[in-house]
């Protein structure tokens, strides 16, 4: 009985080593989750949104999240954040500025 108990304790210690720390993943997730991403290109937004969904799944696991999944989600999220590209701004339209066309008259 004592041997089984010691084995159980040892296995429990090993399992604890595989638990993932969610601190960095949660911080990266919180930076962009639910934020207005309209200033970024559609492609880079899509990559970020997919990474956020994956991170959310891992975060929902809480203390059951394993280190490998946490690290993978964090890496994917960090790459998506680094890959964000701002959209080209549309030039402001000034209602007071008008293009004037001057007709060309040909003299014969």
Tags for this model:
single chain; 108 residues; mainly alpha; 4 helices; 57% helix; rod-shaped
What does this structure look like?
The chain is rod-shaped and about 115 Å long. By secondary structure, the protein is mainly α. The protein has helices at 2-17, 23-32, 42-61, 67-82. 57% of the residues lie in helices and 0% in strands.
Tell me briefly what this model is:
This protein is mostly helical. The chain contains four helices and no strands.
Strand content: under 5%
Give the terminus-to-terminus CA distance: 116 Å
Largest sheet: none
Q: Give the number of helices.
A: 4
Our Rg estimate from Cα atoms comes to 27 Å
Shape: rod-shaped
Average the pLDDT over all residues and give the rounded result: 84
Number of strands: 0
Topology:
Elements: H1 2-17, H2 23-32, H3 42-61, H4 67-82
Helix pairs in contact: 2-3, 2-4, 3-4
């Amino acid at each position: 009985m004592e041997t089984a108990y010691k084995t159980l304790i040892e296995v429990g210690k090993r399992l604890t080593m595989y638990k993932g720390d969610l601190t960095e993943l949660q911080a990266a997730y919180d930076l962009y989750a639910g934020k207005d991403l309209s200033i970024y290109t559609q492609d880079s937004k899509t990559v970020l949104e997919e990474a956020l969904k994956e991170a959310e799944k891992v975060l929902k696991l809480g203390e059951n999240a394993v280190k490998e999944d946490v690290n993978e989600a964090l890496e994917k999220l960090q790459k998506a954040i680094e890959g964000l590209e701002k959209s080209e701004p549309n030039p402001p339209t000034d209602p007071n500025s008008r293009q004037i066309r001057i007709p060309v008259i040909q003299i014969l």
